[in-house]
Amino acid sequence: MQEETFYSVRMRASMNGSHEDGGKHISGGERLITFDNMKHTVNALLEKGLSHSRGKPDFMQIQFEEVHEPVKTIHPLAMKTNKVESPEEGQSLARFLLEKAGVSRKVIEKAYKHIPEWRGIRGAVVVDIHSGKRIDQTLEKGVRVSRMDWPDANFENWALRNNMPSNSRTKEALALASKVSDHPAAVAELCWSDDPDYITGYVASHKLGYQRITAMKEYGNEDGCRIFFADGSEDVNSYINYLVKQPIFIDWGEDDDSRVDRKK
Question: Which residue ranges run through the membrane (predicted)?
Answer without folding.
Answer: none
